[in-house]
Amino acid sequence: MENKFVVHDLNLYYKDVQALRNISMDIKKQQITALIGPSGCGKTTFLRVLNRMNDLIEGVRIDGKVLLDDQDIFGPDVDVVYLRKRVGMVFQRPNPFPMSVYDNVAYGPRIHGQRNKNKLDEIVEKSLRSAALWDEVSNRLFKSALGLSGGQQQRLCIARLLAVEPEVVLMDEPTSALDPLSTLKIEELLRDLKNHYTIVIVTHNMQQAARVSDSTAFFLNGDMVEFGPTETLFTRPTDQRTEDYITGRFG
To answer: How far is CA 187 from CA 22, 107, 164, 167, in A?
Structure first.
């Protein structure tokens, strides 16, 4: 299986505080990689490294290598705007724009210069279908997205991301604010999306990581304690701390 990201000896500092230590991992193309661990362990910080969102935080310093398709994302020639188009992010809480469903999905393509109405119509429908939302919103495309349910809003945010044709989808606790039924729909969607995208998901939900991911990394205090195939990590962990966390004996 081909690598999408190769991370080698990654260290990240918030001024004098080291938040990530010597992280090395390969993230496979068209697979779901889950990042698990207790709050404050560094998993969201690591996720934000992959599309350089940490650049927006004052005092952050990073060393090591992060290669996307063999290109160093911190290289001097990297266009960060284009990087974030290739590597998009869905956040913990749904954050639709205060505009229509249609305009939410069309926003990204318009920013990137798409003005053709027929093409925009096509992109909006395709993206909403890919996010398993079209059947629920096709009769209310020009009504406010804020009127959708929480689960629908999160799938809309996924559709908005897919509309700019990313290669990688980063998800930071995408179902933590959702009810069980909406969570199930998002998990079903993830299984479909991995046929076309590389997905990296942060989750506190052990069962969710076990259900949807191909590989899992366990983070603790800025270290990556263990990384491997999800089934192996959950059934035969090699580190006692991983086993304690998975079984609820941690801490």
So the answer is: 31, 25, 21, 19
What tokens does 143 get?
């009504």
Structural contact between residues 67 and 126, judged by C-beta atoms closer than 8 angstroms: no
Report the 10 Å Cβ neighbour count for 108.
Answer: 20
Crossing angle between the packed helical segments 150-162 and 101-111, to the nearest 10 degrees: 20
pLDDT of residue 249: 78
Using the 8-state DSSP alphabet, how is residue 202 labeled?
A: E
Q: How many C-beta atoms surround the C-beta of residue 40 within 10 A?
A: 13
Distance CA 100, CA 147 (A): 9
- pLDDT tens sequence across 73-132: 999 999 999 999 999 999 989 999 999 999 999 999 999 899 999 999 999 999 999 999
Q: Give residue 153's identity as a one-letter amino acid code.
A: Q
| Residue burial 124-142, b: 16+ Cβ < 10 Å; e: rest | bbbbbebbbbbebbeeebe
Q: Give the global pTM.
A: 0.94
Mean pLDDT confidence for 148-167: 96
DSSP sequence for 232-249? HHHHS-SSHHHHHHHTT-
